[in-house]
Amino acid sequence: MITIHTLGPDGTNCEKAAHHWLSKKKLEGNVFLHKTLEVAIEEVKKNKNSVLLGCIVYPYLNNIVFQNLSLFKLTDCFVMDTHNMLFASRFKDKKKIRRVGSHPAPKDLFSYVPELNSNIESVLFDSNSESALQCFNGKVDACITTQKAAKKYNLEILQDFGPVPMGFSIHSRID
Description:
This protein is an alpha/beta fold. It contains five helices and ten strands.
């Protein structure tokens, strides 16, 4: 039984990728979701039968890799479509949007929403799912998130960018 540690909360592309990888490899395992991959790697250090699943566009994945070269090695990579990536909001009217939230990786998707004016304040969160949660909680008016997270928090889908072919990596302990 293997344990995959990756980015949460529920609804992230990393969570989807973890379940995909277990299925593809025909492995039984658990998926534990963490606030950041930096937190997740610390858990992998403590648990022998565990791996880290990272997304290749995760900010500073390079730091996780190179700061832990003596402890971990890259053992697998694969490409998988993400959940549909969306621009979602608590409002149906884009003119009401003043603050937007996103994980750092897909934040440039905002440039594909022409109705947003340049005075919009941008807030970064630890994951796409966290962006949806903070939109639901009123900390931002709209967000870049996954279809799964937008549905979970009953957000209005204002623009659907579709799935994105994405790379994911598996990092295993050197024991």
